[in-house]
């Protein structure tokens, strides 16, 4: 057997079969064992076809196989939804037969109605959203860019180089790199960057690893700019990113912070980054655009954010000494800073035209650790928002901030009731549960697919389906776990990979 033009040919197999049956004597002009010969040839042909299919599957990438499997699951669920309608109706009727079932169904209807109306309102705000155009060089304020680094290796060099290549006026930018007691060769790469950039870069080394919050704290005190920009040491900015990020401070006197537009840098290396790339686009370009219309972006990302100097120093002592349940807070420094700036009455905006590419986890373990950290921070800061969100914390409209807070709170409050119902559904009707979950993913994830396809490419947009599958069946436990472990500290993903 050989391969010609990527396909199997059966020349050798044919010769072998001819030799094998050459001893069969003809009887009355036909082969006595003709039936068995025909059967063997049919089997031989089927074997060749199977081998061709195996060869074709091997030629497919893991990414293609994941997407194909995703579509097969979701399409199967759509078919099952049709055929299992009587079963779903019977299950629904059995729930309504009890008072608890009626109560749960009523609450579900109210929440679904709220979410639907909130989504429609969000679409309206998204359509109205516009990025603020870059102001002139003369109008741009002085800014200090702080890059805290821990165990990033060569990535920090690329980050600093991309910042140095920005088209921001050189005389108005101060670039600081702070090594937070790295255990690898990060400091050597920072020294190489210093060697390349000279006086344009100032470098510092923490005597020991104290955490990102403390590295930023040192940078805030060293900075001389009227605007602070923080950039993660595994992120790459575009040439116009800094000027686009900082421009809202010029056009809006009440702007206290600005969130950048984060995309995935390593989305060509592994499947999880491909999924997160689509998720990030929706999370930033849709969700934060809506939040920005309220002047209340809830979290300025560590990958790229800008803060007014005055707003930072107003809350810096509280921020660096922040505790939760008596323990120092060593996570969620970006969400905490955003929260404290909102509390002062400032607006927090989003700039869709300020792009940054950042590395994300490529393994399931790295992914869930990152999400646990984010989940714990979300719980802590939502509890913190209770202290001011319903007070007169801002001179202008407070409706948007309160609406966003309620939306976040409903998700947390309904976590355990939803988990209990899910367990009940699984134990009582496992087939219906899987079918309903997959069909819901097909419907709801299509929103993200359409959004990404419209803004970028159709082929990559399909990863929204795969990501939803991963989250529904592999990461659903994150929020309930983060709630009950919200007091735990630890970065979880800062150590060197073994």
From TrEMBL:
This chain's protein is named Hyaluronan synthase
Report which superkingdom the organism of origin falls in: Bacteria
Q: What is the lineage of its organism?
A: Bacteria, Pseudomonadati, Bacteroidota, Flavobacteriia, Flavobacteriales
Write out the GO MF terms: hyaluronan synthase activity
Q: What is its main location?
A: membrane
What PANTHER family has UniProt attached to this entry?
HYALURONAN SYNTHASE, MANNURONAN SYNTHASE
Q: Which InterPro entries match?
A: Nucleotide-diphossugar_trans (IPR029044)
Query: Where, subcellularly, is it found?
Result: Cell membrane
Entry-linked CDD domains:
CESA_like (cd06423)
Swiss-Prot/TrEMBL GO biological process terms: extracellular matrix assembly; hyaluronan biosynthetic process
Coiled-coil stretches: none
Q: List residues traversing the bilayer.
A: 65-84, 104-127, 403-426, 432-452, 464-484
Task: Name the UniProt key words of this record, in alphabetical order.
Answer: Cell membrane, Glycosyltransferase, Membrane, Transferase, Transmembrane, Transmembrane helix
């Amino acid at each position: 057997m050989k391969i010609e033009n990527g396909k199997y040919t059966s020349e050798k197999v044919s010769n072998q079969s001819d030799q094998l049956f050459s001893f069969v004597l003809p009887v009355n002009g036909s082969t006595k064992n003709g039936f068995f010969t025909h059967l063997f040839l049919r089997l031989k042909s089927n074997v060749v076809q199977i081998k061709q299919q195996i060869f074709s599957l091997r030629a497919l990438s893991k990414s293609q196989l994941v997407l194909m499997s995703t579509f097969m699951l979701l399409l199967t669920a759509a078919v099952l939804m049709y055929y299992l309608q009587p079963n779903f109706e019977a299950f629904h009727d059995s729930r309504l037969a009890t008072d608890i079932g009626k109560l749960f169904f009523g609450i579900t209807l109210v929440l679904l109605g709220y979410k639907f109306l909130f989504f429609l309102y969000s679409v309206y705000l998204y359509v109205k959203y516009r990025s603020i155009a870059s102001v002139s060089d003369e109008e741009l304020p002085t800014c200090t860019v702080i890059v805290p680094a821990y165990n990033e290796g060569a990535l920090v060099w690329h980050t600093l180089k991309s910042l140095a290549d920005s088209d921001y006026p050189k005389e108005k930018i101060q670039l600081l790199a702070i090594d937070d007691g790295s255990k690898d060769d990060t400091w050597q790469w920072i020294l190489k960057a210093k060697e390349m950039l000279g006086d344009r870069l100032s470098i510092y080394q923490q005597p020991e690893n104290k955490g990102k919050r403390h590295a930023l704290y040192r940078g805030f005190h060293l900075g001389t700019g009227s605007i602070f920009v923080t950039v993660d040491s595994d992120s790459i900015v575009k040439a116009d990113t800094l000027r686009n990020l900082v421009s809202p401070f010029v056009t809006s006197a009440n702007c206290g912070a600005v969130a950048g537009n984060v995309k995935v840098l390593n989305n060509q290396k592994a499947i999880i980054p491909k999924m997160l790339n689509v998720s990030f686009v929706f999370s930033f370009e849709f969700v934060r655009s809506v939040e920005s219309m309220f002047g209340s972006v809830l979290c300025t990302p560590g990958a790229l954010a800008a803060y007014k100097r005055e707003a930072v120093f107003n809350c810096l002592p509280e921020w660096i000494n922040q505790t939760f349940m008596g323990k120092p807070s060593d996570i969620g420094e970006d969400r905490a800073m955003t929260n404290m700036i909102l509390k002062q009455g400032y607006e927090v905006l989003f700039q869709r035209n300020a792009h940054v590419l950042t590395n994300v986890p490529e393994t399931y373990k790295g992914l869930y650790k990152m999400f646990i950290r984010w989940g714990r921070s979300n719980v802590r800061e939502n509890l913190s928002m209770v202290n001011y969100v319903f007070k007169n914390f801002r001179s202008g409209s407070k409706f948007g901030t309160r609406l966003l807070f309620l939306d976040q709170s409903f998700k947390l409050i309904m976590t355990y009731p939803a988990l209990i119902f899910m367990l009940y559904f699984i134990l009582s009707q496992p087939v219906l549960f899987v079918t309903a979950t997959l069909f819901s993913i097909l419907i709801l994830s299509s929103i993200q697919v359409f959004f990404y396809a419209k803004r970028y490419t159709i082929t990559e947009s399909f990863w929204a389906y795969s990501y939803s599958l991963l989250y529904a069946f592999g990461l659903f436990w994150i929020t309930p776990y983060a709630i009950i472990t919200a007091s735990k500290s630890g970065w979880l993903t800062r150590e060197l990979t073994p």
